Amino acid sequence: MLLIRCPYCEEERPELEFRNAGEAHIARAADIAAVSDEDFEKFFFIRSNPKGIIYERWRHIHGCARFFNAVRDTVTDKFVMTYKAGEPKPDISKLKKESGPAAYANRPPDQLNVKKPAAKRAPASKGDA
Amino acid sequence: MAKAAVKTATAARAPALAGRDFSATGVKLAVLAPAERISLRAPAASVAALSKALGVTLPKAPKTSASKDGRTALWLGPDEWLVIDEAGGDPLADCAGVKALHSAVGVSHRNVGFSVTGPAAAATLNAGCPQDLSLAAFPVGACSRTILGKIEVVILRTAEDAFRLECWRSFSDYAFAFLSQAAVDAAA
User: Smallest Cα–Cα separation from B47: which of B70, B23, B75?
Assistant: First the structure.
């Protein structure tokens, strides 16, 4: 299961709590009635559908219920970063080096929700399921 | 037919699953008594006034709760709280006098509360809840809206080995059956 970082809950949460809400940063025209049919079609139906980095809206529906934006790689399904709704589109070429990956699988244990790992468990005895 | 006494019927509340409980090795489930609850939405500017009226400071940090005199405020979202009053008070009436912008909706009968207690309580909830419920990630007082199996629930850790779980009334049969089975599995 993916762990997705919710920028409002400020921690990684299991993907079951989230729902995708389509592509992000699609601005609605201030005067939608004046938009030509061709432009309206682009606004309403046409999506970028890239192979690679995509900017998406996600909703933490079974958590804080807030919409936020996420940068996701459609090839690897890796969440590069998440940020609050309304914040400007991040420049991903700069981000890739500096910020840590948002996905659980790419984070070392000391950067997860748990601040410090608990005392080591006793090794499981053989035959234990 | 001269003495046709008029009988007035008084409707008795029938709380879902009232008094039910279930025990397995290391974990005990119980359906909690009815409580007053409100769903509270308010911007940051109204929080101080509402906290004063409710008598409990509304928490501002994610996944935290505050409790005072039988009344608990659970952070659900940046501007959303669930307030549970188990002491017989009426949080809805307390909010009614607040002039600051807010929305308080009574949801007392929408929810059913369960307690899950015992050393295997976290394991029981983790049968259907994908969150990390270890003490390090989910300390006492932590609360979160999340999922249990296929329903949405609110979980509050009331003690190291005790949780309060709130689900919608119509889901309570599912929640109780799910937790009962999970308790058996967690004990095994």
Answer: B75
- B46 pLDDT exceeds 60? yes
For residue B92, pLDDT over 80 is answered with yes
> Is pTM beyond 0.90 here?
no
* Residues of chain A contacting residue B145, judged by C-beta atoms under 8 Å apart: 62-65
Task: Name the closest residue on chain A to residue B63, using Cα atoms.
Answer: A9
Look at B159 and A116; give whichever has higher pLDDT: B159
User: Around B34, how many Cα atoms within 13 Å sit in the side-chain half-sphere?
Assistant: 15
Any CB–CB contact under 8 A between A10 and chain B? Answer: yes
How confident is the model over B110-124, as a mean pLDDT? Answer: 95
B146 touches chain A (CB under 8 A): yes
pLDDT over 70 at B45, yes or no: yes
Q: Which of B76, B125, B132 to mutate to test the interface with A (most CBs of A within 10 A)?
A: B132
Identify whether the C-beta of residue B131 lies closer than 8 Å to the C-beta of residue A14. yes
Chain center to CA of B118: 18
Establish, for the pair of chains A and B, how many residue pairs have beta carbons separated by less than 8 Å: 51
Same domain? B117 vs B104:
no
Instruction: Spell out the CATH class of A3-108.
Output: alpha beta
- Does residue B141 share a domain with residue B102? no
**Which CATH number covers residue B114?**
3.30.1360.120
Whether the CB of A115 is below 8 Å from some CB of chain B: the reply is yes
Structural domain ending residue among the three candidates B46, B76, B108: B108
Domain extent at residue B135:
18-33+110-188
pLDDT mean for each 10 residues of chain A (129 residues): 92 94 92 93 92 94 95 91 92 60 54 56 53
Neighbouring residues of B103: CB distance < 8 A, sequence distance ≥ 6: B40, B41, B42
Together in a domain, B93 and B119:
no
